[in-house]
Amino acid sequence: MSRILAIGRKEFVHIFRDPRIIMSVFGMPLIQLILFSYALNYDITNIPTAILDQDKTTTSRQLIQSFSASGYFAIDKRISTERQIDDVLTAGTDKVVIKVPTGFADKIAKGGKAPVQVLIDGSDPNTAQTAAGYSAAIAQFWSGKVVAEAFKRRGLVAAEGIQPIEARLRVWYNPDMKSVNFLLPGLIAIIMMNIAIVQTAMAVVREKEYGTIEQLIASPVKRYELMIGKIGPYLGIAIIDIILISLVGIFLFGVPFRGSIFVMAIASALFIFGSLGLGLIISTMSSSLQTANQMATFLSFLPGFMLSGFVFPIRNMPVVLQWATYLVPARYYLSILRGVFLKGTGPSILWPNIFALVIYSTLTIVASALMFKKKM
User: Fold this and answer.
1) What is the pLDDT of residue 332?
2) Bridge partners of 52?
3) Going by fewer Cβ within 10 Å, which terminus of the chain is more open, N or C?
4) Which domain holds residue 102?
5) Rounded CA separation 49/90 (Å)
6) What value does the CA radius of gyration of the chain take, rounded to a whole number of Å?
7) What global pTM score does this model have?
8) Are 144 and 213 in the same domain?
9) CA dihedral 308, 314, 317, 320 (to 10 degrees)
């Protein structure tokens, strides 16, 4: 035990005497969290919109006001000719052009159909789909309102008969549908996997480059003692990082935490152990810090970011990639975090993901112990 503590103390001294390492293990996770939370935002609002109002009536202005008041369309330009539509969309200054044709108000007054053209820039499919959905919903709502007013002017009460089926929507777990509530648990998984693997991988390789590995080889330290002493400090740092990131997410971004701290702690410990083991495996396969850094990034950040369900839904991936996601531990940890944070899900539902992390951590720790030799 004394030898393990001595190695761990040596690693702690090395970490805290180098400002760059301190920044990478404590500062970078928080910076990445804040940057990703603000940059990765699926909440599309205030879509730049131009208006071509050829009718210029009170009715057309009311329709335009409905789009503006929705909060989804930011009307920042009014054009006067159809030729300008192509100029506006080509330049990319506006993503949507709403064209109200001449005779719009007259057709409504006569009870006829009054088409309104919504032209959308499809170069950004996500924004285009959102704009199409919002514009259709606004048009439908406004149409129902116009019909109801027409019946009312005739002395008829037909508002209930216009739409006999009324959908009453209630969103559970994320009622405001804030992207940050969905993204932050995933960010914890991606950031922690990257930090744990990269730092651990470089810890042993650093001994090789500095030439101090010979001292460890000549010492009476056993293989498992050297391994535990090396990963111990990074285990503690990873736990501190998870606590800091979670607190920032809860208090700065308002992400709810509805589940069990115990469940999150168990899942986090398993995930971190597995990541540290993978980092040690990489360290035994690398001869330089540059190689270790590249391998760690390739095996942690890229799979975690692309194949965990963090950004891209797994169900929308090709079948081959869907099967590949089962090999990405961040997939299971991310599911646990989202369940714990947003739904308050317990172990009775999360146990398959927890069991997968048990297998992952066991395999990586055993493999790293077998590969981790004093003479490398």
Assistant:
1) 95
2) 99
3) N
4) 47-162
5) 13
6) 29
7) 0.76
8) no
9) 70
